[in-house]
From TrEMBL, chain A:
Occurrences of domain ABC transporter (ranges): 2-225
Any one Pfam family match given in the protein's UniProt record, by short name: ABC_tran
Keyword ATP-binding among UniProt keywords: yes
Protein name as it appears in the record: ABC transporter ATP-binding protein
A GO cellular-component term linked to this record: membrane protein complex
PROSITE patterns given in the database record: ABC_TRANSPORTER_1 (PS00211), ABC_TRANSPORTER_2 (PS50893)
InterPro entries: AAA+_ATPase, ABC_transporter-like_ATP-bd, ABC_transporter-like_CS, MacB-like_ATP-bd, P-loop_NTPase
Hydrolase is among the record's keywords: no
Amino acid sequence: MIKITDLEKYYKTEEVQTIALNKLSFEVKEGEFAAIMGPSGCGKSTLLNILGMLDDPDGGSYLFNGIEVAGYNERQRAKLRKHNIGFVFQSFNLIDELSVFENVELPLIYTGVKPAERKERVHEVLEKMQIMHRRKHFPQQLSGGQQQRVAVARAVVNNPKIILADEPTGNLDSSNGNEVMDLLTELNEAGTTIIMVTHSEHDAKFSHRIIRMLDGQKVTENVLV
Amino acid sequence: MISNYLKTGWRNIIKNRGTFMVNIIGLALGIASVIMIMLYVSSELSYDRFNKKADRIARVVFRANINGEEMNEAVVMAPVAQTLENDIPEVTDATRLAKSHNNRLEYNGTYYGQSNMGYVDPNFFQVFTLPIINGDQRTPLDKPNTVVISETLAKNIFGSGDPVGKVIRVTNRDESYTVTAVMQDIPENSHFHFDILASTLGYVNAKKTTWMQSDFFTYLVLKEDADIAEVEAKLPAITRKYMGPQMIDAIGMSYEEFQKDNDLGLFLQPLTDIHLHSDFSDATTLEQGGDIKYIYIFSIVAIFMLVIACINFMNLATASASKRSKEVGIRKVLGSNKKQLIYQFLAEAFISALIATVLAIVIFAISLPGFNQLAGKNIEFYSLLKPVYVLCLIGLILLITVLAGGYPAFYLSSFNPLHALKSKFSGSGKNSGIRSGLVVFQFVISAGLILATLVVKEQMSYIQNKDLGYEKDQLLVVHNTYLLENNEDNFIQEIKNNPRVENLTHSAYVPAGESYNEAGGIFLKGEFLRRMYFYNVDENYIPTMGMELLAGRNFSKDYGNESNNVIINEKAAEALGFGQSAIGKTFQRDTHEGLQDLHVIGIIKDFNWKSLHKEIDPLILKMNPHGGIIIKSKTADMSGIIEVLNSDWNSYNPKEALNYSILDDSFNHTYLKEQKMGTILTLFAILTIIVACLGLFGLVTFTAQQRFKETGIRKVLGSSASQIVALLSKDFIKLVGISFLIAFPLSYYLMNKWLQDFAFRIEIKWWLFLLAATITLGIAFLTIGIKSFKAANMNPVKSLKIE
């Protein structure tokens, strides 16, 4: 599903060049649940951004479903992204001006789904996330756990092949955090590939495989199942 | 998709109510100004266009420069119309119009006071589109002593009865006219308005064959494909052909010889240019017209207003980008492309423009009566509903959407989604550079307008306070005392004896407002010199008017018959070549009985007998009291005198009401156009500074938010509130300062051009710049200061907690 080879990324300021990713290589197969761990500044988020096609690498290869996307421009990346990838962020990143329903509906709008079908699919996923009764509320009216459930709902509404989660429980207490991890596990069991960046060993245990990083390089890889 | 845009747009508006109000109020004021000026300009441009042949009609005018005297007259000689129709093949029709003065109407024993009457050629109704609604449609003026009257006058005199065939009388000339038709009232946007149009067939002046005297407004209808410039090019030859022989008889000089040192000729003026492009002497114009200059000025001001408001929108939208960046980021991550985001932000600008337009229409409706009064117009609210204006408004909304929403849309949508999510875009740099440029632009306009307003006010106050060479205060002019006939002398004597009256002179010649007017050819040793103007006065004129006699003596009854004696002004002494030693010198004037010798007995100091727009011309005072009286009151309150005048007048002549004017008012009326412009400029200067400051206020608010943490840290480290205020205000004040560098030279240049209209004018002094700068800076600082003061006095703990 995802195969990166010798992936490189630099950040330059006027005087200093920082290496964020240093010839990183690994593969994630379809249906896998992979966790990426490492200390702050090791390049986890940079990696996730490149995998999510929010950013482009400075070197190396990135095959997404067998297609080389390393040289894609923003428009091409956006097109591929909206049909295939769902995102879950630590800070939820819901649009405050839109209701729960409207936030979840947004990816469907951008992929051109008709209104009647949109409604049906949003309701379906809200039911699944047990947040249907909150569909008319706005993000600020929800608890953190509820907000993250909405974010997960939004990430899966388009039936993406892969979900990228950036510390999805980072802003949640343990019980809400566990709920979100259970959700992700369910999704994975239903066939969605998941790559999750996390600081939490506890969360990482929900995955099949932990990739540990340091200074932009992979240091170990433990297979849990 | 669109509903999603509108929904987000609307909720964003609700969330940022303050910014939104700033935007909306600014935009609404801008749009209201545009609406008002749009209607005003289109009304001004519509003059005379109701005539079906408007594009083919031209007026023949006379322009000359004779011995330094510039003459621009809208009237020409009686034979011109017929001659041009005969001699120029492109002219298909020619018609004449002469204004008739003093027309007191009487019908069936009832008097109707003064009426607006003109003499017109029988074909007048074929040239101008003045629909006949009753009576002879085709040849209403084909017989002498026939008239066409307006609908209003018909109702006034005849009520519901049929006026056709009835005979009305002009009593003061003892003329009778048969009404042959009733015409619709002449539209407001016509350069002439009459209630009675009489046939020239019975009018003596119409039969004149002289090319040496101008009486008629003359209009030509040209062939469809005729070129007006080509027709005009044929006029000099015709003038030479017909005027030449008469010139030798009149001034003893051939046309060619005369044209060597002088310049004289007939020219054509398109009908549709008359209202806005006329510079003819007041005595030869039908009605005071508009001025194309003011059309330009007001249009530009309206555009400025709109641009300033749009800039507010742009600046506030880009400044508040930090608030929107997260949303942009999320939308991009979820698959929105740049185009979709541009549409979204344009949709928000569209909502704002739409709401602002609705509010602008409300503002327009509320301020319309005031505006009409100010502009002397009769614009009605529902005229805004005409399809063309509705289309204009829709166009305006779209224009504002693109103008105000375009830049923010492109700016916001170009955020990198990663940076946008982390709000990591830079608030400074290129974007804030553009914002600064736009703020400077706004204040260039505001400060420029403030300076312009100050210049206009200064010039107006100069006009008010200038030493005119006479004392215009406490002077009351009573017109047409000749109407009292045999009782005139008794009336004058009674007024003279009134204790409230300080002085009184028997003359109808006044330096401002409605005045008698007399000009004649002046000869020196039998040779034509130039034309000069005469004032017919009595021995009390100079003391009553407070004029200064520089040399010689005043007229006096002690010297017996003074009819050949004159007092001249300094300019006349100069023009005649007499200089200081004019007393005792003799020159001649042209009269019907040949040349008359005039002896100079005195010189008066030059006084502004024309408006301050014009240089002082030579003037000759002649002893010949008639026409009216001028009263100098002892007190500023003249109501007592007016009361006495009224009762005395009514005891002699009940048929017509007393007609008087206060000279000071007439004087002010001369500068009405400039005063109106002053008022309108003041209004717009205030509006633009308000809108610009609204924007500034919004920007300072955002800066204060952006630097919230910084101000907290600084306060913790010991910065005082005033230092924080200075920190937040400095950059903006700098921008306002920069705007002066552009605004003042520009405004100086334009206002100097405006001042050229006045022969007597102020210099734009340094302190006017200082005043304009102080006002602008003061208002700007107040705006910025309020906000930064609030920020500076915030508890620093609050701002530090935010991280």
